[in-house]
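Project outcomes to date are best conveyed with an example. Our students and postdoctoral researchers have been running inverse folding experiments weekly, and each run begins with a structure described purely in tokens. The record below, which covers 142 residues, was selected by the lab manager from last quarter's runs and is presented without edits.
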């Protein structure tokens, strides 16, 4: 009797668990989304390059636009830039190294956005805000 009751109880649990399973039908072909024509996304503008130059390679051409001088060509700078300045180490092993001088951005050869100038210890000593080549404000730190 006990075994019959346990068999009955197990079969009820089994049938209950089978009844709770969801049966899915296969999708119809072609799906509605398949027939719609998808439009391509617009290609956004290519990000501007980041330049790393020394002060000697940054020149101003006759149109007052800043350019990077490579060989004999002067390519107008359009993008972010990091400027380095030569620094002479003193002592027994005197050598010339480059230190961070300024960071900012040019837009078609003109100063644009916020420019930060650094001292020998990489501490910000001056900030300037430019708008299309015109100085908006300047703040100097001590």
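After processing, the design step wrote out the following sequence:
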């Amino acid at each position: 009797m006990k075994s019959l009751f346990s068999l009955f109880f197990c079969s009820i649990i089994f049938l209950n668990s089978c009844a709770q399973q969801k049966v899915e039908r296969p999708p119809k072909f072609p799906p509605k989304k398949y027939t719609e024509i998808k439009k391509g996304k617009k290609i956004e503008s290519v990000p501007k390059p980041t330049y790393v130059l020394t002060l000697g390679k940054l020149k101003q051409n006759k149109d007052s636009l800043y350019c990077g001088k490579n060989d004999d060509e002067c390519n107008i700078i359009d993008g972010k830039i990091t400027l380095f300045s030569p620094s002479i180490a003193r002592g027994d092993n005197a050598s010339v190294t480059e230190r961070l001088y300024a960071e900012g951005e040019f837009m078609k050869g003109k100063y644009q956005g916020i420019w930060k100038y650094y001292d020998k210890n990489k501490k910000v000593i001056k900030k300037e805000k430019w708008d299309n080549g015109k100085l908006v404000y300047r703040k100097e730190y001590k």
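DSSP finds two helices and nine strands in the chain. The helical segments are 2-19, 32-35. The training component of this project remains on track.
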